[in-house]
Amino acid sequence: MRRLVSFMHVSLDGFVAGPNGEMDWIKVDDEIFDYVGKRIDGSDTALYGRVTYEMMEGYWPTAADQPNASKHDIEHAAWYKKVDKVVLSKTMKGQQRPNTMVISDDIEHRVKALKQQAGKEIIIFGSPRASHALMHYGLIDEFWLFLNPVLLGQGIPLFKNIQEITNLKLVTNKAFASGVICLQYQKEGSGK
Predict the structure, then answer these.
(1) Are the CB atoms for 157 and 16 separated by under 8 Å?
(2) Are 174 and 147 in contact (CB under 8 A)?
(3) 70: Cα separation from own chain's centroid
(4) pLDDT band for position 155 (50/70/90)?
(5) 8-state DSSP, 151
(6) 95, 134, 91: which is closest to 115 by C-alpha?
(7) CA proximity to 70, closest of 22, 43, 45, 34
């Protein structure tokens, strides 16, 4: 079975975005980009909520073509172009996009079926509302939480609509020079 792995930046007080979706508090740099880039190379599917997907589509398809493209832009744009994309969205229902599947209903069973298909890991970047739905159904197998040294006080919480106790096992942790710490947790019983 394919694993569904969540990559999420989170504040020290448990928020993934400000009250209006603000993400300007997230610390990213070449050290974090390199770390994540090596980790996602083995994945062949990216899953997004509609808002995050539209943000990604607005940047990554042409990011490597820009005259000032960074190493990260070039590498991630190449990865983005080659992976299959899955979008959880009711408003995009029926839309056809290249290399992209839109799931508008029956999320639980359709994502379970996707996990049963042949392939490598499925990665979800950010997408807090989509992540909440996936967590509600217990579909996320692993969390890569990038804990940012900031307190937001309010915003969109990391965890919401959890239906039952879910035990997690800390697999690795990595501290970055920026003060961000990556914590890799697996759901107990869902090892590789």
Answers:
(1) yes
(2) no
(3) 21
(4) very high
(5) -
(6) 134
(7) 34
CB atoms within 10 A of CB 150: 17
| Residue 90: partners with Cβ closer than 8 Å, 6 or more residues away | 104, 105
Q: How far apart are CA 166 and CA 18, in angstroms?
A: 25
Q: What is the DSSP letter of 78?
A: H
Identify the CA nearest to 139 among candidates 161, 155, 171: 161
pLDDT of residue 160: 81
Q: What is the pTM of this model?
A: 0.89
Total number of residues shown for the chain: 192
pLDDT of residue 31: 95
* Domain chopping of the chain, boundaries: 4-187
CB–CB of 88/130 below 8 Å? yes
In this structure, the dihedral spanned by the alpha carbons of residues 49, 53, 54 and 57, taken in order and rounded to 10 degrees, is -170
- What is the identity of the amino acid at 113? A
Residue 146 makes CB contacts below 8 A (sequence gap 6+) with: 7, 8, 9, 10, 26, 32, 180, 181, 182
**Cβ contact 179:27 at 8 Å:** yes
Domain 4-187 top-level CATH class: alpha beta
Q: 171 versus 93: which is more confidently predicted? A: 171
In Å, how far are 73, 99, 120, 123 from 89, measured between CA atoms? 26, 16, 23, 17
